[in-house]
Design a protein that fits this description.
The chain is mainly α and 124 residues long. Helix content is 65%, strand content 0%. It is built from 6 helices and no strands. The termini are far apart.
């Protein structure tokens, strides 16, 4: 029973950290406080890029021939953050049991992944 309550507490903490509230504010704070190397969840960065793309006009509304550089700057900031995680040196490890487990995982087709994504985040 103790293990179950510890597991439940860990589950609640994970749910809090990965909450959508405030644009994943708790997750972003946790990621900033964690010492590198870390593997950030790329889905949040992709969500940011989609939000910027759909929420900001590509051209200035006052003069449609002028590019909206503020939008481009926001995109560049997100891309730079992703690249900052890619530039870190990650220690190499080889735990045979874990390695064998990872190698045994069969990948899903793009069609299956799309189906599951719609279950997690329905359109509309």
């Amino acid at each position: 029973k103790i293990e179950t309550s510890k597991t439940y507490e860990l589950y609640k903490e994970c749910m809090h950290v990965m909450s959508h509230d405030g644009g994943f504010k708790a997750y972003r704070a946790k990621l900033r406080s964690c010492p590198p190397p870390a593997l950030p969840y790329l889905g949040i960065y992709l969500t940011d890029l989609i939000f910027i793309d759909e929420g900001c006009p590509s051209f200035l509304q006052s003069r449609l021939e002028l590019i909206n550089f503020d939008k481009r700057k926001k995109v560049a900031t997100v891309v730079q953050e992703i690249q900052s995680w890619q530039n870190l040196q990650y220690p190499r490890w080889h735990e045979p049991i874990t390695w064998d487990y990872i190698n045994a995982i069969e990948g899903l087709t793009e069609k299956a992944l799309f189906k599951y994504s719609l279950i997690c985040e329905p359109r509309g």
